[in-house]
Amino acid sequence: MGTVSAIRDRILHLCAERGITINKLATLSALPPSSIKNILYGKSKDPKILTIKKICDGLEITLIEFFDAPEFEALEPEIK
After folding, report:
1. Do residues 52 and 24 touch, judged by C-beta distance below 8 A?
2. What is the helix (H) or strand (E) element at residue 63, kind and residue range?
3. Segments of the chain scoring below 50 in pLDDT
4. Mutual orientation of helices 49-59 and 3-18 as an angle, nearest 10°?
5. Are 52 and 7 a contacting pair, CB within 8 Å?
6. CA 66 to CA 59: how far, in whole Å?
7. Which of 6, 17, 18, 74 has an alpha carbon within 20 to 30 A of 56's alpha carbon?
8. How far apart are CA 51 and CA 25, in angstroms?
9. Prediction pTM value
10. At what angle do helices 49-59 and 33-40 cross, to 10 degrees?
C-alpha cells in the first residue's frame, strides 16, 4: 500500500467511525469538499501536510493520532 492510499483509508475509517460524511468532514475542517475528495479519488498524488492537519483539526485529533494507525505501519518505501 502506498502513502496516499493509506491516507485515504485512514480518512474513510475515521469518518465511518464518527458517522460523518465527507461533506461534513470538509465543513468541520474548513476545507472545500473537493480538497478531501481529491485525496479520496486519487486526484491528489501528494496531499499537503497542512491539508491533513486541517482534517485532523476538524476531527479533533492530533497528527500523531492520525498517523498512529495500522495503515501506516507497513508502508512501502516511496524512493526505490
Report:
1. no
2. helix 63-67
3. none
4. 10
5. yes
6. 10
7. 74
8. 12
9. 0.91
10. 110
